[in-house]
């Protein structure tokens, strides 16, 4: 290939951008180390695998793949509207909720604006902000989580959007309903608040914020949800936002009409009715969380209390080395040094046996000293 550097041609915000670092795929580690039976606890995926009901629906849907998907996602939107008590015109569908987050930034934020998010918050927020050439304002975290008072105080005349992840990834930290509500009351309506609730289903029902119902009171609030975690559809890409109809209207103008494909539309629709699968996933997560916490306590390892489907453990200064040693033992977890957590590793909760493989590997590594 001839010598050529496209940097000067790339948009200013893109020039210094680093690509999203995904969890290492199982196949990649197999290729690299020539090992089998790998346990991946790196991407907060649902260890149950796809729900049998969804699988059956997908098999039927395959027959129609020569046709374009429904660009308006009518049936999925109708299902979401029914379950969440909203109107269909409040819903924006996304190719995963990352798509929704990017769509929000591209619709409402320009290079004249700034966007507020928390230190240690989901990396997609700074990424979409930077891509647009907007200014990102990372507010220092409090106990690894969002400091909402400091975030409210950071609002200035340039602020157009605030991202909040609740629970947050990669820390698992959680904001109460009362804290969130008080925050929303402080934010002027010309600042959009994106409440990313990717792990909502893992939070005990009694503690969940009635966030969707708040949209009627706060037209600047957008709630995003995903099918990638508790619903077990990470590979299909399905997510959505619930907002004021006017917000959805503008997002819809730049949304790619077929951003959700026929299979993901169908799978998400069926998954929403598969209450047994969801309950099983949540219960399995609860047990796995207890299993990992017991391991941490047994070995005096600090961890960040988590409401998600993962636990971020403080393994020490040699976190990068431990990560590599785990790989050699066939266990993939997630380094989080890029989130300013260089002493931690994030471990997704897997099946009981998978968690046990991780625990055994860690015990062996810790014993090596
Ligand atoms: C996993 C995750 C998402 C969801 O990503 P998808 O694009 O829906 O797969 C969104 N926000 C946070 C904080 C996440 O951890």
UniProtKB/TrEMBL annotation:
CDD domains: AAT_like. Residues 36-360 form the Aminotransferase class I/classII large domain. Its cofactor is pyridoxal 5'-phosphate. Gene3D superfamilies: Aspartate Aminotransferase, domain 1, Type I PLP-dependent aspartate aminotransferase-like (Major domain). It is an enzyme of class 2 (transferase). The modification N6-(pyridoxal phosphate)lysine is found at residue 229. Pathway: Amino-acid biosynthesis; L-histidine biosynthesis; L-histidine from 5-phospho-alpha-D-ribose 1-diphosphate: step 7/9. GO terms for molecular function: histidinol-phosphate transaminase activity; pyridoxal phosphate binding. Keywords: Amino-acid biosynthesis, Aminotransferase, Histidine biosynthesis, Pyridoxal phosphate, Transferase. It catalyses: L-histidinol phosphate + 2-oxoglutarate = 3-(imidazol-4-yl)-2-oxopropyl phosphate + L-glutamate. Its EC number is 2.6.1.9. GO terms for biological process: L-histidine biosynthetic process. Belongs to the class-II pyridoxal-phosphate-dependent aminotransferase family. Histidinol-phosphate aminotransferase subfamily. Homodimer. PANTHER family: HISTIDINOL-PHOSPHATE AMINOTRANSFERASE, HISTIDINOL-PHOSPHATE AMINOTRANSFERASE 2. NCBIfam families: hisC. This is Histidinol-phosphate aminotransferase. The gene is hisC.
